[in-house]
Amino acid sequence: RAAAKDGWLSSRSERSSQASPVIAKSFIPLKTSHADRTAGQSSSRRPALSENVPSERSGSNSPEALHEFAATEIFISEENINKMESILDTWSSNLKSNVLMELRKWKLTFMEQHKVEMKKEKERHATQTAGLKAELESLKELLHTYETSNQRKDQ
């Protein structure tokens, strides 16, 4: 199998037609000895990993001696792996398209909000400009009145 840079199997890797072993650690307390467990297993189905807590650590009456942990192999057929790969490909494709669609919606919403804010700002600016023009006209009239008043005094 070809592994990608990150250590995961790539979807383009070649697969054999055999079942692929998946090693899963199961932490099931076992009261039987390692010899009893392995005696009933065929050599092809024997776990690739086993983690046994040594019983001579604290004596035979310790809790560690009563609980042993074993790793078991689960065989998954190539057909099931291919089905799972197809499902994951579809799921990731759907996820990608849904995320992109949401991003486009957010972009449009943001653009609309920006338009509304710009319109409000333009209206505020127009109102402020109109107010300043009115004040300027009022000041011009006041200046004209003042000049007229000064001319009358001078006569």
Automatic annotation (TrEMBL):
<dbReference type="GO" id="GO:0005814">
    <property type="term" value="C:centriole"/>
</dbReference>
<dbReference type="GO" id="GO:0042462">
    <property type="term" value="P:eye photoreceptor cell development"/>
</dbReference>
<dbReference type="InterPro" id="IPR033351">
    <property type="entry name" value="POC5"/>
</dbReference>
<keyword id="KW-0963">Cytoplasm</keyword>
<dbReference type="GO" id="GO:0032391">
    <property type="term" value="C:photoreceptor connecting cilium"/>
</dbReference>
<feature type="compositionally biased region" description="Polar residues">
    <location>
        <begin position="52"/>
        <end position="63"/>
    </location>
</feature>
<comment type="function">
    <text>Essential for the assembly of the distal half of centrioles, required for centriole elongation. Acts as a negative regulator of centriole elongation.</text>
</comment>
<comment type="similarity">
    <text>Belongs to the POC5 family.</text>
</comment>
<protein>
    <recommendedName>
        <fullName>Centrosomal protein POC5</fullName>
    </recommendedName>
</protein>
<keyword id="KW-0175">Coiled coil</keyword>
<keyword id="KW-0677">Repeat</keyword>
<keyword id="KW-0131">Cell cycle</keyword>
<feature type="region of interest" description="Disordered">
    <location>
        <begin position="1"/>
        <end position="64"/>
    </location>
</feature>
<keyword id="KW-0206">Cytoskeleton</keyword>
